[in-house]
Amino acid sequence: MPAMAQDHASETPATTEQTEALTPADAQAFLDRVQEAYAAYNLTASRIAWVNATYITEDTDALAAESQAEGTRMSVRYALEAAKYSQIEGLSDDQVRMLDMLRSAITLPAPTRDGAAAELSEVSTRMSSLYARGKGTRNGESISGSDIEPAMGTERDPAVLKEMWVSWHDNVGAPMREDFGRMIAISNEGAEELGFADVGTMWRSGYDMPPAEFAREVDRMWNEVKPLYIALHTYVRHKLSEKYGSSVQPETGPIRADLLGNMWAQEWGNIYDIVAPEGAGDLGYDIGDLLTAQDYDALKMVRAGENFYSSLGFEPLPETFWERSLFTKPADREVLCHASAWNLNDKDDVRIKMCIKVNADDFVTIHHELGHNYYQRAYQDQPLLYRGGANDGFHEAIGDFVALSITPEYLVQIGLLDEAQVPSADKDIGLLLRQAMDKVAFLPFGLLIDKWRWGVYSGDIRPGDYQASWDALRLQYQGIVPPVTRDETRFDPGAKYHIAGSVPYARYFLARLLQFQFYKAACDQAGWEGPLHRCSFFGNAEVGERLDAMLKMGMSQPWPDALEAFTGEREISGEAMMEYFAPLKAWLDEQNAAYEAGW
Ligand code: X8Z
Ligand code: ZN
């Protein structure tokens, strides 16, 4: 158990009377003490979490749960204390900002009563362990999570797709239902003790604006891009109906969730072959095939990712990154395959943890994860409380923004594609459609995950309605339905990693829009004049320098300041994304003229 976490356990928080006597210097002493305590806790806690995630056993689960409970007790104690120090008059902006963060930046708070933090972390660890060990079936054979994911992208038999979808959701989601409810109840109790209405409100208060305003903001953003999603949905539904027949996929109404090339129907790029327009659709290459043809393996794919960042002027990754990262699924033990990026010592001990497969999805995910690592390294000189993304959407957007530069011309530059294979301008619609299948399709999914959790946390969604409300939101926002009817003995939300692992999700929705804003800004900086989607800023040191300047800020300033530093804008908006896809939108509208839009 980390010593610092215990040090102040018996300390009584300042009373109102004491508060009057306290000065900004006392607040500073408190902030210094807290940051020291966190630094001491973090290294050990991250090592425990790393070993647990890369070697799951009952023992490492127990160690991780214990360490997590310790961290929760510590951060809740500091949050309560911070509330008192916030009342001091004459605090600097930084002091106010840091005290505020201490109060609200806990993902799962526990109440201070005895045993609550321990129970919360046991329940959470059990859920994520269940997810990590999860299996489905394919043709009656057991199949692991890391194999079933890509299989949903390549399988084309609707009966087998249904089997994989149902087995995964039944095996992984349903057994989590009770634990999930318990987790919600305990963490809500914790949030209330900290003065928040519920955990959802806490999550929404990390965006430099009141939580209610943030909820309105994401609705505004969604409305900006919604017409593009509806157009894509209408077109894809028609193509699926053509391929599978109307008994499998009707021409109208929602789309069957398991037909979209992804277990959660969150990104649809894997079924590009089904929706590719005749003529303009054949891009002449598939990134997965190119990687395979050139004998790429996991390591070589990561080296290619690093090479991109190096071309922008970022330092190469340290030797320890290559020694300590987990790149492929070990044969002899359980690991949590969902990709993540780590920085264990808050300095240069950066790592990724992935079960890499040689395919297009993982090539993009590698760039995504490395984006986290380069961000972490860039803000390492900030005070500990400022080591984070300008907001969590920024952290998720950096690597994806870089990956938008993986254009055909870029693939030629790194020797993956022959000059002669570069698709001509008449293939632009195909290129845009391939990209939209991943990027645009994701938008309603990115939004609804936390719409659902916010509802659960606020009590608008009751435990007896978990499944029905999930299905209702999937239908309302994504226009999809499960391949078989679900009832309340199921718990499909738990079959998605971020629900099982309690990772807030609005960040990915923000990132989807932000990455296009960053990309457009970078292409402007690079003086690019062609169609936006053909721009690659590979090798552009000026873009790299400006990016580094934003990354270095960490969370020291409100996020609109960070956004402005790189893009000149202060609002997150769908405008850049709409501009990128404008030619596709016009084309989709033509294609869809004869079909009924929506569901
Ligand atoms: O979870 C992730 C990353 C790790 S932060 C692999 N992503 C979301 C998901 O998989 O659901 C990236 C895109 C969305
Ligand atoms: Zn990420």
From TrEMBL:
Protein name in UniProt: M2 family metallopeptidase
PROSITE patterns: PEPTIDASE_M2
Biological process according to GO: proteolysis
Binding site for Zn(2+) 2: H368, H372, E396
Annotated positions binding Zn(2+) 1: H368, H372, E396
Residue positions with a glycan: N139
Cysteines engaged in disulfide bonds, as pairs: C337-C355, C523-C535
Domain of life according to the entry: Bacteria
Organism: Stakelama tenebrarum
TM annotation in the entry: none
Keyword Zinc: yes
Active-site residues from the entry: E369, H498
One cellular-component annotation, GO: membrane
Keywords for this protein: Disulfide bond, Glycoprotein, Metal-binding, Signal, Zinc
Residues at which chloride binds: Y207, R507
Biased segments, Polar residues type: 12-21
Any one Gene Ontology molecular-function term assigned to this protein's record: peptidyl-dipeptidase activity
Region (Disordered): 1-21
